[in-house]
């Protein structure tokens, strides 16, 4: 699975009384689907997943899935403290048609989270998961920082395809990239090297009147034959479910979570990012990635400077209440967080408005 590009980890909208505002969730997802982001992450930390019940998590996953455009990669945050509960939610996400599972590091029993515990947890999840898995490391919230050496060891598992590294440690990113260079995965992409997933193939098949059966991951990995929609345009291209696809070799994919360090992280070898700041300013974040992708380092640095202070303040310091108000200011629906998180004061709202005055997208 190709995970290159920018992914907003969307928020969960609430009414003032704390109930989930599903119509606004649909509105946000539909709007993100029209931006240049590569995909959408549902039930990440910014989604306040830890504050939701199991039933609410399932309803949020379902609503977001039904609202997303077929061309966006969908990542489900399915990490729960135990492996068995993580797998239950991952199975449900797979049934809905999600493309990737993002599994945060277990952390409640910190003193017991030895390397052997982490290895056993992630290998068990990856062995049994119907979806490819990415590790999610967020030490600022969990109090546990998975060592680069452990990530490098886990990267050898064929179903562990990447990590979201939210520590903001650029040197750690570089170390993980260097330490996993030997890992190779085959990712199915379009003729223009955009991500292709089983859900996308299904949607195209339905549009072509070919039926809507979900194409197996094995077929997308190259095991399938040329489809009935036509012959491949070149030996490197295979038609699957009406879509022209090809294979691209990718390594263990490192994505980062600190928007204020996006450009240096990309220079260190990251292939993309899952950024809370992209919830309010997806295009501004994408512009950094696009400039870097085009090899224009100077422009990428300029674009980075444009958002650096705002990203640090809004996300790094004001956290979810700050992100939600920034979304309100930029035309998305942020709304209130769920208790025990509190909305911002008027003074902090005014500060965000000032910081985002030239980042309106």
Structure description:
With 361 residues, the chain is of the alpha/beta class. The chain has two domains: 5-184 and 251-355, TIM Barrel; 185-249, no CATH class. Helix content is 42%, strand content 14%. It has helices spanning 22-32, 54-67, 83-96, 115-128, 139-142, 148-154, 170-179, 198-207, 217-223, 262-267, 282-293, 297-317, 319-329, 346-355, and strands spanning 5-7, 39-42, 73-77, 100-104, 133-137, 160-165, 185-190, 238-240, 243-250, 253-256, 272-274. The chain has an eight-stranded parallel sheet with strand order 1-11-10-6-5-4-3-2. A three-stranded antiparallel sheet has the order 7-9-8. Strand 2, helix 2 and strand 3 (73-77) form a beta-alpha-beta unit. Helix 1 crosses helix 2, helix 6 packs parallel to helix 7 (170-179) and helix 11 packs antiparallel against helix 12. The longest helix is centred in the C-terminal third of the chain and has 21 residues, at 297-317.
Output the CATH homologous superfamily of the largest domain: Aldolase class I
Helices and strands: which structural class? alpha/beta
Order of helices and strands: EHEHEHEHEHHEHEHHEEEHEHHHH
Could you list the spans in which at least 5 consecutive residues all have pLDDT below 50? 221-234
The CATH topology of the largest domain is given as: TIM Barrel
The pLDDT mean sits at 92
Write down how many β-strands occur, each being a DSSP E stretch of 2 or more residues.
11
Q: Report the top-level CATH class of the largest domain.
A: Alpha Beta
Looking across the biggest beta sheet, what order are the strands in?
1-11-10-6-5-4-3-2
Query: Which term fits the overall shape?
Result: globular
Rounded Rg: 20 Å
